[in-house]
Design a protein that fits this description.
Layout (H helix, E strand, L loop, with lengths): L9 E5 L13 E6 L10 E7 L5 E8 L4 E5 L8 E4 L3 E11 L9 H20 L21
Antiparallel strand pairs: 1-2, 2-7, 3-4, 3-7, 4-5, 5-6
């Protein structure tokens, strides 16, 4: 696969679910095999191959000193959880992903976030002696026509 550094072992994993949004469901994640797990920095996105029913998960990985692996989703709607380190068979570090879908248009929530950020900036401006735009009164000339 082009644009991958030499000297590593790479594999592509299909994703399911929305726990790692904004990476879209159905994306293919390209990951590099990690031989020494201690080299992983906290919250490194990885594919973790597990023993048991669930073959693998795509999560942010944190190795804990108590012998567990903390797994966290990018999507804040999902709870983090831990698995015993001996339940993790392999760890593959995220390199990139590919998808055949276009990004979704902005949601109302994203628009609200942008508005809040704008208001915060304007309030900071006001505290420095300015007058924020969103408080400005928009006075338009009145064009009432009397019929008579």
């Amino acid at each position: 696969m082009p644009n991958l550094s030499r000297g590593g072992t790479y594999r592509m994993f299909p994703t399911t679910g929305d726990s790692m949004l904004p990476i879209p469901e159905g994306s293919d994640v390209v990951a590099r095999y990690i031989q020494d797990w201690k080299t992983l920095k906290p919250d490194t996105p990885c594919i973790v191959i597990l023993k048991g029913e669930q073959d693998f998960v795509f999560k942010q990985v944190n190795l804990q000193k108590n012998g567990t692996v903390l797994l966290r989703s990018l999507n804040k709607d999902y709870q983090l959880y831990t698995v015993p380190v001996n339940e993790a068979l392999e760890i593959w570090q995220y390199v990139k992903h590919q998808t055949d879908s276009l990004p979704a248009p902005e949601t109302d929530l994203q628009e609200i976030k942008q508005l809040i950020v704008k208001m915060q900036k304007q309030l900071l401006f006001q505290n420095k002696g300015g007058f924020p735009d969103f408080l400005a009164i928009n006075k338009k000339p009145c064009h009432n026509k009397r019929q008579g």
